[in-house]
Specification:
Helix Hairpins, Heat Shock Protein 90, two-stranded antiparallel ribbon, elongated
Length: 341
């Protein structure tokens, strides 16, 4: 067994060169000692023999330790991230074990993140499929009805309008998903320009005035007209518009939506509040999750507008939060920090 182990070690080219060099130096030293004195030569020979035995034993031990590390790495590659090879000794091998363990912990964390990403992707695909299924099914039914030649003209016009409405909803969903995916992937280069908040609010609300007029809602805008921050004007306007749109949907006819803004030394703040139905306390922690629909959500709600607003604000170094009281309304707060942007 010992001979077999020695032969296995000697197959290693580096060990073979080490043994040859050690033996060469030892033999030359022994011959010189024998020339000087026979007893000195014998002592040198015994010392050489012991040195070779000790070197082979120590080298074999290190070889076995490296082989254990190799097996450990193979098990890690197989997904066994809970292994711990660390020890409390000093030395290069102990340092190497500690470094390998650190890499193992990192790989374990990355594997967990990948697992969560897979679950998130599967859930997102399921949610998207659900969101697409309802309007597509509705359009199929209305298309079949329109194909009936006996269908009255007024019904035909009504179904055509409904199909167009569903198509617009699908177009908005697909466009929003593409925007969200680009933001998540970091593929959007947000501009860093000086944004006047008053102009931003007017840009965000200009296409929402008609829906508010239909519901007889009032919009109140107030704040420091010189307030500003560094960010992307168009993307920020989309974020604010999505929040205001959410307020419009959850505020009854004749309600009020208030937008206030100001600039502080550390951040610029925009608050958007309504006097609508409010958000249930059980739903409040999840309203910024994509595809989440609370108990008060409208039937045609998709649950992506607030998620997009959150992604846009956070991508510009800001934060967004909401507080709400049932039947008393909701207030959204956006803060864009100067020190971050």
């Amino acid at each position: 067994m010992v001979i077999r182990g020695a032969i296995k070690l000697l197959r290693n080219q580096e060990i073979k060169i080490f043994i040859i060099l050690l033996a060469s130096v030892g033999i030359i030293g022994t011959v010189v000692c024998f020339i000087i004195d026979n007893m000195a030569g014998m002592a040198a020979f015994l010392a050489l023999f012991l040195m070779i035995i000790i070197s082979l034993g120590f080298t074999k031990w290190r070889y076995l330790q490296i082989e254990k590390l190799s097996q450990y790495l193979k098990r890690i590659a197989g997904g066994e991230y809970d292994l711990d090879i660390r020890d409390n000794y000093e030395g290069e091998l102990s340092i190497l074990k500690s470094e390998i363990y650190k890499v193992t912990v990192t790989l374990s964390e990355q594997a967990e993140l990948l697992k969560k990403d897979k679950v998130f992707l599967a859930n997102s695909i399921s949610d998207i499929s659900h969101q697409l299924k309802t309007p597509i099914t509705s359009m199929f039914v209305m298309t079949d009805l329109i194909s009936d030649e006996s269908l009255p003209q007024n019904k035909r016009i009504e179904f055509t309008k409904n199909i167009r409405s569903q198509l617009e909803r699908l177009q908005w969903l697909v466009t929003s998903l593409l925007k969200l995916s680009k933001i998540d992937a970091g593929a959007i280069d947000f501009k860093k320009e000086q944004v006047n908040v008053k102009e931003l609010i007017h840009k965000a609300t200009e296409h929402l005035l008609i829906p508010m007029e239909i519901k007889e809602q009032t919009l109140e805008i107030s704040g420091d007209e010189h307030a500003k921050f560094i960010g992307d004007f168009n993307w920020s306007a989309e974020a604010v518009a999505n929040i205001i749109k959410n307020c419009i949907e959850h505020t009854p006819r004749g309600g009020r939506i208030v937008v206030n803004f100001n600039e502080a030394p550390v951040y610029t703040m925009i608050t958007i509040s309504d006097n609508g139905v409010g958000i249930d306390n059980r739903d409040l922690p999840y309203i910024f999750n994509r595809f989440y629909k609370g108990t008060n959500a409208a039937n045609d709600s998709i649950g992506i507008g607030l998620a997009m607003a959150k992604s846009i604000v956070e991508s510009q170094g800001g934060v967004i939060a909401a507080i709400s009281e049932k039947d008393r309304g909701t207030q959204f707060t956006i803060k864009i920090y100067r020190s971050i942007v």
